[in-house]
Amino acid sequence: MQRPDMSVAVAGIKMRNPVMTASGTFGYGAEFADYLDLESIGAMISKGLSLKPKAGNPTPRIVETPGGMLNAIGLQNVGIDAFIEQKLPYLKNVNTPVIVNLYGNTLEEYGEVAARLDGLSGVAGIEVNISCPNVKQGGIVFGTDPGAAQEVVRLVKKNTSKPMIVKLSPNVTDVVLMAKACADAGADALSLINTLTGMAIDLERRRPVLANVTGGLSGPAIKPVALRMVWQVARAVKLPLIGIGGIMNGRDALEFMLAGATAVQVGTASFLDPSAAQRIAGEMEQYLVDHKIDSVSSLIGALEV
Ligand code: ORO
């Protein structure tokens, strides 16, 4: 048998396989080059970038929890100009699509960051973060209100000709409502889910573990929630979806595709195993070989209910 066709496309971004690296878990790409072949994965997504550099929240800002971890990084990043000058030149020499995750402290800032990236070669698309749970301004403020989300999506759309993915928050009552709002406002694809707001307590010190008190929960603990949300959104919205949430191996990734995702993002797994994204793509391919399936795209939304 020939090797299965692992390629997929999300909003015109062609990928050799469905495995992308989730924002904030893969640095700016180069940091991982010693651990995996950057040309073995589907796409890379940068840490969320803002107009100005940002130091993030005070430490401690990461803690392990049962089946997962909490983070409260606070969107630390080098700023969009430093990314373009210092990080992008390296990435341009890697034959893998680069998607830039971006956010704004204000509505206008979202538009401004998107505008700086427009027309730049080496940027295959953008992912708009309206779902960071760890900052007071920006992020989730726009991701829990359908009207506010639409304002961001419309403004970014006006400022970019690149494919626009919008990253949704699970910290809402009705994720389908948010997905529809973003679709109506012009999103080209949706990624879901960002982390679930949680907290950890140090009993002896009677204090929260994280300096920020709360953080975003990720890892296998959230996979069932993420699968449910991808499945619900897939039934309600026509856009391509990118599934995220506790994907540790190829089987997890394929479950997201059955639920309706065209591609997946690997995040927390890269902290345990920095080569996880490459390994997961290989495991997906092996599943197809073992089950005599010719193309991974035939599994998208193929769940029988
Ligand atoms: N953490 C998350 O869990 N999601 C985000 O979008 C951003 C952060 C962070 O920088 O704290």
Automatic annotation (TrEMBL):
- Give a Gene Ontology cellular component term annotated to this protein: cytoplasm
Membrane-crossing segments per the record: none
Q: Which InterPro entries match?
A: Aldolase_TIM, DHO_dehydrogenase, DHOD_1B, Dihydroorotate_DH_1, Dihydroorotate_DH_1_2, Dihydroorotate_DH_cat, Dihydroorotate_DH_CS, Dihydroorotate_DH_I
List residues binding substrate.
Answer: K47, N71, A72, I73, G74, L75, N129, N194, T195
Q: Where does FMN bind?
A: S23, K47, G48, N101, N129, K167, I193, G219, G245, G246, G267, T268
Q: Name one GO molecular function term.
A: dihydroorotate dehydrogenase activity
Keywords associated with the record: Cytoplasm, Flavoprotein, FMN, NAD, Oxidoreductase, Pyrimidine biosynthesis
**Which enzyme class, named as a word?**
oxidoreductase
Keyword NAD tagged: yes
Is Flavoprotein included in the keywords of this UniProt record?
yes
Q: Report the subcellular localization.
A: Cytoplasm
Q: Which residues form the active site?
A: C132 (nucleophile)
Family of this protein: Belongs to the dihydroorotate dehydrogenase family. Type 1 subfamily.
Q: How does it assemble?
A: Heterotetramer of 2 PyrK and 2 PyrD type B subunits.
Question: What is the purpose of this protein?
Answer: Catalyzes the conversion of dihydroorotate to orotate.
- Which protein, by its recorded name, is this? Dihydroorotate dehydrogenase
Q: Which organism is it from?
A: Citrifermentans bremense
Highest classification ranks of the organism: Bacteria, Pseudomonadati, Thermodesulfobacteriota, Desulfuromonadia, Geobacterales
